[in-house]
Amino acid sequence: MTARPQGNLALDRQGGIAARIEAIDWSRVTADLDAQGCAMLDGFLSADECSSLAAMYTEERLFRSRVVMGRHGFGRGEYKYFRYPLPELIAELRTAIYPHLVPLANQWNEAMGFDERYPPQHVEFIKRCHAAGQPRPTPLLLQYGPGDYNCLHQDLYGEHVFPLQMAILLSAPDRDFTGGEFVLTEQRPRMQSRPEVVPLRQGDAVIFAVHHRPVQGTRGTYRVNLRHGVSRIRSGQRHTLGIIFHDAQ
Questions:
Q1: Which of 112-126, 178-192, 221-235 has the lowest mean pLDDT?
Q2: What is the per-residue pLDDT across 206-224, written as a single tens digit (0 to 9) for each?
Q3: Helix (H) or strand (E) holding 143
Q4: Torsion sign, CA atoms 118, 120, 122, 125
Q5: Are 226 and 114 in contact (CB under 8 A)?
Q6: What helix, strand, coil percent values describe the chain, rounded to 5?
Q7: Could you tell me the end-to-end alpha-carbon distance of the chain, in angstroms, rounded to an integer?
């Protein structure tokens, strides 16, 4: 399959994205998220799918806005938010993965003493976001060149925040770029920050905590604060797809 920047991206694996998502060992993903705040999905997208998604970056009609990170103190590089309707693959990723994450999201909120509970289907949660004044889609493509990086941050966007999100590396390390590691930090009470470098290859996905997650300590459950970012690109160009499940104000 050749790279095509159209909004409807054909899948090159039999059974499509829904079958691929159903085949994931979600019990393992849940255990990793509970233990580390992140979980990898190795080889989630093919190289052709990655190339086709990265090629969308030049298709301005697909996007609602472009952000140059240096203008806002976010780092260096840029990203673009997709507009509605989302490209077919991105919309399907969002709606098909969300139900598998809802049980853990609700468990985490209960453990941390948060009142919000998430509905079983993504369309219901998006209606909640829109009713609260968060109507803008948040899936995005990020583009980095030499010297670019993304400061540690949290993708919150409004009152309603789904506590897990996903990033998929579309470029091949050591071929398309060098440097540019995906980094998570976790701040536990009265402790220094703990870093986690996620060794993504092209097509790998990482699901990770957006803001808080519960951790069991000797005196009960407490909240830890997480941030994520990307280290400096040393050479080449790096593209990433971000799947955020809540919409923005």
A1: 178-192
A2: 999 999 999 988 788 889 9
A3: strand 140-144
A4: negative
A5: no
A6: 30, 35, 40
A7: 37
Written as six digits, the tokens of 54 are: 């990265």
Residue with structure tokens 């139900």?
99
2 band by pLDDT with thresholds 50, 70 and 90: very low
Which residues lie closer than 8 Å to 174 by C-beta, 6 or more apart?
none
Pull the structure tokens for residue 205: 């996905």
In the block, residue with structure tokens 């979980």 = 39
Helix (H, G, I), strand (E, B) or coil at 171: coil
**Radius of gyration (C-alpha) of the chain in whole angstroms:** 17
202-231 in b/e form (b: 16+ CB < 10 A) is bbbbbbbbbbbbbbeeeeeeebbebbbbbe
Query: Which residues contact residue 218 at a Cβ distance below 8 angstroms, ignoring those fewer than 6 apart?
Result: none
Give the burial class of 175: count Cβ atoms within 10 A of its Cβ; 0-12 exposed, 13-18 middle, 19 or more buried.
Answer: exposed
Q: Please check the confidence at residue 75 and state whether its pLDDT lies above 50.
A: yes
For residue 209, the 8-state DSSP code is E
What is the pLDDT at residue 193? Answer: 87
**Residues written for the chain:** 249
| The predicted structure's pLDDT at residue 15 | 55
The rounded distance, in Å, linking the Cα atoms of 204 and 206 is 7
